[in-house]
Amino acid sequence: MSDASQGLRLYNTLTRTKEDFVPIDPRNVRMYVCGPTVYDFAHIGNARPVIVFDVLFRLLRHLHGETHVTYVRNITDVDDKINARALRDFGGEIASGALSLNEAIRRVTEKTADQFHRDVATLGCLEPTVEPRATEFVEPRADGKADMITLIQSLIGRGHAYVAAGEVLFDTASMPDYGQLSRRNLDEQQAGARIAVDAHKKNPGDFVLWKLSSPEEPGWQSPWGRGRPGWHIECSAMSAAYLGEVFDIHGGGLDLIFPHHENEIAQSRCAHGTSVMANVWMHNGFLQVEGQKMSKSLGNFYSIHELLETDTFGGRKWPGDVLRLAMLMTHYREPIDFSVRKLEEAENTLRKWKRAADLAPAAGSQLPVEVVEALSDDLATYAAFQQLTQLAGEATDFDGSGDNAAAVALKTALTFLGFDIGAIKVDDTVVAKAIAERLTLIAAKNWTEADRVRDELLAQGVQLKDGKDPVTGERVTTWEIKR
Ligand code: AMP
Ligand code: ZN
Q1: What is the mean pLDDT of each run of 10 residues along the chain (483 residues)?
Q2: Ligand 2 center from residue 370 Cα (angstroms)
Q3: Ligand 1 atom closest to Cα of residue 33
Q4: Domains plus CATH for the chain?
Q5: Protein residue with its CA nearest to atom 15 in ligand 1
Q6: Ligand 1 in contact with 337 (CB < 6 A)?
Q7: Residue whose CA is closest, atom 11 of ligand 1?
Q8: Checking phi first, is residue 406 left (phi over 0); if not, alpha (psi -120 to 50) or beta?
Q9: Shortest CA distance to 385 belongs to which of 424, 328, 315, 436?
């Protein structure tokens, strides 16, 4: 292990191995993660990279110092899906001239970005250091930071891009080692490509850097006419703007390896003449719901917002930290099956941890070494959680005098990991339903079942109190949170 790595090892998709993580500059560790395209609520799959890389951000801050990590997560606010959404939601106003298309697009992207921020904050995620918006990096900037048009010009100037049929395309054949990340070679890509559709391309794998916009579409003036950027170029510009030509870590979901990340690498390396864009490429596995790929047509498509605020998943709302724990119980590189059972398991675990952590008056300053070691092994969150469960056991069994060190350590670790160690949260409607059910059982003299309902609530931290209404004399049940 090298000292500079601080013991951190990360799996690198580029080399397909777990490596010591040695930052280029330990006083400024630099990470870029592809962020959301803001046209609709973020779904629960989108939450996975946000949560996973939040844990890595926290760990890097712990290892290198809070002010020594720069985490950039962009917002994609230019995309044809956004235009379509603006036309769908504001078509009438646009047609009547009450709203310009650009104004409608701005409304869609701002509303969606605000919702995304609320969602991920509820999931316990810290804000990234910078959150650039793609539209602010299309044209050359007053502050001289990297922008897409200048990058495309460099690519053309260096012989890596060409203009054809109103598009600027990246010339994949100009980069001998194109395809390193996804380990696809150009021949394979050509075999499967639809040549006829892409007749203007030199090679079927060539991809769009710039395309022309019709007067109805959003566009920017450029040397190639009024148009808009392709998807990949925005991340090359925004990462260069804040992290430089070569930086430490680049992340996102598995589906981004090809073509998005492969093409980011091609653009950045060829524009800057560097041998890598980022040293470590990290990808989270995919999330399924109840054993099936999440899709609107299957009716198992859930937004983060729905899980937090409605009862569409499992008939109840789920607290943000339960979703967070459920997401992290599986190693980030594995596929994850999101299910009601998993959420219930996370909720039970979290409740036990919180009760034990509550035996300490406050978190301490010392993060348990075992937790740091577990996370430093390519974010082995499940191993870190085993440590928390052990600490919870020790904290609960503690009968000595003085400080309950295990409880303090547990509280420190929970805070560090982004779990809300405040009050146990319960869903009022769920409690009310259970109370009504119990009263029915009591009326039917089904004492065993009535007690079962009472005990289940108690296990969730809800204690029932039976009393009588002073006026009607009827049985009334109140409840309070008991830890
Ligand atoms: P998108 O808005 O589709 O570009 O996705 C934003 C981020 O969410 C990317 O990092 C994707 O790789 C990731 N992502 C999308 N769907 C899933 C899923 N079902 N499971 C895990 N990650 C996903
Ligand atoms: Zn990207």
Answers
A1: 80 98 98 96 96 98 97 96 94 93 93 96 97 97 98 98 96 96 75 61 95 92 97 97 98 97 98 98 96 87 95 96 98 97 97 95 93 98 98 95 94 95 69 90 92 83 82 82 61
A2: 33
A3: 10
A4: 3-284 (3.40.50.620), 287-416 (1.10.730), 428-481 (no CATH)
A5: 46
A6: no
A7: 253
A8: alpha
A9: 328
